[in-house]
Design a protein that fits this description.
42% of the residues lie in helices and 21% in strands. By secondary structure, the protein is of the alpha/beta class. The protein folds into two domains: 130 residues, Periplasmic binding protein-like II (D-Maltodextrin-Binding Protein, domain 2, 3-Layer(aba) Sandwich); 103 residues, D-Maltodextrin-Binding Protein, domain 2, CATH 3.40.190. The strands form two sheets. A five-stranded mixed sheet has the order 2-1-3-10-4. Strand 1, helix 2 and strand 2 form a beta-alpha-beta unit. The longest helix has 13 residues. It is globular and about 55 Å long.
Length: 243
C-alpha cells in the first residue's frame, strides 16, 4: 500500500507540466462562438486557450498596461488601430476575420417593431433601452451611429441605459430588466430569452468588422491564430451567425 502510494507520488512528480495555451483577449460578442472554437481546438490535443472577454476598449487598454495577451480580437477598427499605433500587435498579423449585423431586441416572443421613435418610445414607456457604452464600446458606438443616421438619437438618448459591454446589454433584456436593447445579431441568436425585433440597415452605421491580431508571435499563439482562420473554425462562426 505504502509502496503503491510512493510510486504514484513519483509518477505525478515526474509527469511534465501541462502546456499553457494562448491567452486570447476577445470582444464580448464573440463568447459563444469562440468558446466552441476553443473546445474543438482542445479536442484536437492542443493546450486549452485562456479566453478573456470584455469590451474592445477595456481589452485594448489592458494590453497597453502590460496584460499578458497572446492574441486579441476587437470589434472596432479604431481600437485595433490604437493598438497598432502603440506597437502592441505583431506587424502584418492584423486581419478582418468576421462581420456582424446590428439589431434591436426585446423579450422572446415580442412582436416586431418599426425603427421609429414613436414606436420605440411607446414600447419603452418609462423603462430603458439597453446599449453598450456609446462613447467607448464598439457595439454602443455602432448603435448610436445607427440611431443618429435614422434620426432617432435625440428622442431616445435620455432613455438609454449604458453597460460595460454588449453582453451586459443583452443580459438586461434577457432578464427583462430592460424591455429593449441594441446588440449584435450574433448576441441575440445566442440568447433564447430574447427576440430580434428589427435589424438596422447596413448603411446606417459603419461596417461591423471583428479584427484579429497577434500580440505575441509564439509558436502556440501562431498555431491558434492559424486555426481561427481554418474552414473548421469558419463553420463554427458561420453557425453562430457571423458573416
Amino acid at each position: 500500500m505504502l509502496r503503491a502510494l510512493l510510486t504514484c507520488i513519483v509518477l505525478l512528480t515526474a509527469a511534465p507540466a501541462m502546456a499553457q495555451g494562448p491567452v486570447v483577449f476577445a470582444a464580448s460578442s464573440l463568447k459563444t462562438a469562440l468558446d466552441d472554437v476553443a473546445m474543438v481546438w482542445e479536442m484536437r490535443g492542443n493546450p486549452a486557450p485562456v479566453l478573456v472577454y470584455a469590451g474592445s476598449s477595456a481589452l485594448a487598454r489592458q494590453i497597453d498596461q502590460g496584460a499578458p495577451a497572446d492574441l486579441v480580437f476587437t470589434a472596432s477598427t479604431d481600437w485595433m488601430a490604437w493598438l497598432r499605433s502603440r506597437a502592441l500587435i505583431v506587424p502584418g498579423s492584423e486581419i478582418p476575420l468576421l462581420g456582424n449585423e446590428l439589431v434591436l431586441i426585446g423579450a422572446a416572443g415580442e412582436a416586431a417593431l418599426a425603427l421609429d421613435a414613436d414606436a420605440i418610445t411607446a414600447r419603452l414607456g418609462s423603462d430603458r433601452l439597453a446599449m453598450a457604452m456609446v462613447d467607448a464600446v464598439p457595439a454602443g458606438q455602432y448603435g448610436r451611429a445607427a440611431l443618429e443616421a435614422l434620426g432617432l438619437w435625440g428622442r431616445l438618448a435620455p432613455s438609454v441605459a449604458q453597460t460595460d459591454n454588449v453582453r451586459a446589454a443583452l443580459a438586461l433584456v434577457a432578464r427583462q430588466d430592460a424591455p429593449l436593447g441594441i446588440v449584435y445579431a450574433t448576441d441575440a441568436l445566442a440568447e433564447p430569452r430574447v427576440s430580434i425585433l428589427a435589424t438596422f440597415p447596413a448603411d446606417s452605421h459603419p461596417p461591423i468588422e471583428i479584427l484579429l491580431a497577434l500580440v505575441k508571435d509564439t509558436v502556440t499563439a501562431r498555431a491558434f491564430y492559424t486555426f481561427l482562420q481554418s474552414p473548421e473554425a469558419r463553420a463554427i462562426f458561420d453557425a453562430q451567425g457571423f458573416k
